[in-house]
């Protein structure tokens, strides 16, 4: 369910002169802008000016009640309840009308009321309304545009992507389709994930809906970190251990990736799990510099040195395991290893910040990163979680929040994902990152 409100247009009195009408429209635009920025107090003040001589305007009154609700920290107050009751009585809204809704404004009133109930944790009542009006309201709700970062080749890469690790084909297909229809425009996969066909099916289904164009979607995939030799096994094993190709030449591989760009087979190339030294090695020999570096990064392991180096060379920075990598635990347990990993989602500081903003711990962990222009790729196959993880741009952490979260950094000791745990024997390779 969408957890944001729809604002109404200002309705002008027929007695309003032209100048007054224009002034009201300007105020209305400003009120909406302040609301979207989270400046709810300013929004309320502007709406009070608008409602001063339009007390009978139900939609304006509703906007004002919504803004006051947010200003008060999404808490149910007596004044808010009275205002809401008066609005619904004036609009003559009745439960039985849910079955025969025809006008858009009434539908939006019901929708906003459902969102209020949702924030008040009256989930059953909220879902009851939404289930009945979804066929009317869905076409009115456009997914929020996800901000992008500009790569060093001029292309745009969305700050939010869907991670696809450990999602089987059919599950990942459904997840990719749901994410794209919810506003995501960045999908992260890899050959190693063994689900690229499912990712393709999900993209195809989303495009078939008519709501998404292929040209809008940024797809990331990765070479397997072992199989770099054409014509050879991608994962060569012997006696249960991975056989290392100790002749791996990073520069030769990068030159081949540059050739893929020249052939038009890819638009951007980057690196993942590279050390600072390895990135510098590529930069010293590249015709096309890496556009992106993707590594583990979260509040416990904030990668300060790597991020600074990437910033110096205009390399975009993508975080995986932003939520602490529950996927790594699942992966290792499948391989028969018992592990205990840090629980970022239940960190007391993270939870306090989440409560302050009435957000989930996951949203806070992700917002902490995107607010620093770090690209995030949280993984989920659950539609509601995908939407929830994507709701990162309707709120902002203040400097107190950011400072508290920065203090959680443990440096290298905070690293959770280690290649030698995921790929036994890989630490024997001279280019092994960790």
TrEMBL record:
Domain NADP-dependent oxidoreductase, chain residue ranges per copy: 160-227, 245-406
Entries under PROSITE patterns matching the protein: ALDOKETO_REDUCTASE_1 (PS00798), ALDOKETO_REDUCTASE_2 (PS00062), ALDOKETO_REDUCTASE_3 (PS00063)
Alphabetized SUPFAM superfamilies for the sequence: NAD(P)-linked oxidoreductase, TPR-like
Gene3D superfamilies the UniProt entry points to: NADP-dependent oxidoreductase domain, Tetratricopeptide repeat domain
Domain of life from the UniProt record: Eukaryota
GO molecular-function term, one example from the UniProt record: oxidoreductase activity
Protein name, as recorded: Aldose reductase
Organism expressing this protein natively: Amphibalanus amphitrite
């Amino acid at each position: 369910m969408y957890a944001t409100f729809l604002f109404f247009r200002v309705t002008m009195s027929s007695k309003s002169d032209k100048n007054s009408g224009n002034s009201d429209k300007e105020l209305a635009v400003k009120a909406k802008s302040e609301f979207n920025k989270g400046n709810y107090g300013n929004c309320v003040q502007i709406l009070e000016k608008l409602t001063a001589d339009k007390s009978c305007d139900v939609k304006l009154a509703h906007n004002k009640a919504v803004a006051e609700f947010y200003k008060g920290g999404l808490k149910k107050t007596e004044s808010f309840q009275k205002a809401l009751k008066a609005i619904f009585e004036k609009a003559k809204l009745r439960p039985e009308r849910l079955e025969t809704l025809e006008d858009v404004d009434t539908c939006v009133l019901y929708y906003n009321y459902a969102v209020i109930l949702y924030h008040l944790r009256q989930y059953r009542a909220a879902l009851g309304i939404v289930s009945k009006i979804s066929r009317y309201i869905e076409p009115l709700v456009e997914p929020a545009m996800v901000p992008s970062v500009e790569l060093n080749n001029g292309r745009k890469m969305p700050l939010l992507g869907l991670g696809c690790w450990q999602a089987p084909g059919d599950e990942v297909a459904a997840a990719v389709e749901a994410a794209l229809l919810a506003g995501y425009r960045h999908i992260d996969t890899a050959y190693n994930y063994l689900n690229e066909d499912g990712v393709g099916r999900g993209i195809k289904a989303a495009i078939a809906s008519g709501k998404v164009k292929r040209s809008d979607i940024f797809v990331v995939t990765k070479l397997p970190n072992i199989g770099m030799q054409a014509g050879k096994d991608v994962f060569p094993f012997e006696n249960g251990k991975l056989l290392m190709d100790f002749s791996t030449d990073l520069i030769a591989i990068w030159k081949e990736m540059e050739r893929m760009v020249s052939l038009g087979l890819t638009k951007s190339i980057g690196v993942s799990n590279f050390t600072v030294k390895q990135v510098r090695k590529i930069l010293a020999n590249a015709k096309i510099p890496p556009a992106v570096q993707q590594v583990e990064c979260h509040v416990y392991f904030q990668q300060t040195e790597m991020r600074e180096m990437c910033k110096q060379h205009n390399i975009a920075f993508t975080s995986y395991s932003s939520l602490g990598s529950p996927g790594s635990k699942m992966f290792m347990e499948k391989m028969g290893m018992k592990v205990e990993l840090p629980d970022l989602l239940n960190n007391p500081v993270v939870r306090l910040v989440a409560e302050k903003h009435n957000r989930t711990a996951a949203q806070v962990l992700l917002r902490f990163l995107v607010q620093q222009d770090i690209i995030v790729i949280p993984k989920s196959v659950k539609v509601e979680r995908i939407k929830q993880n994507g709701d990162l741009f309707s709120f902002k952490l203040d400097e107190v929040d950011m400072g508290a979260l920065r203090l959680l950094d443990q440096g290298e000791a905070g690293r959770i994902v280690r290649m030698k745990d995921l790929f036994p024997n890989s630490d024997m390779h001279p280019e092994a990152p960790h």
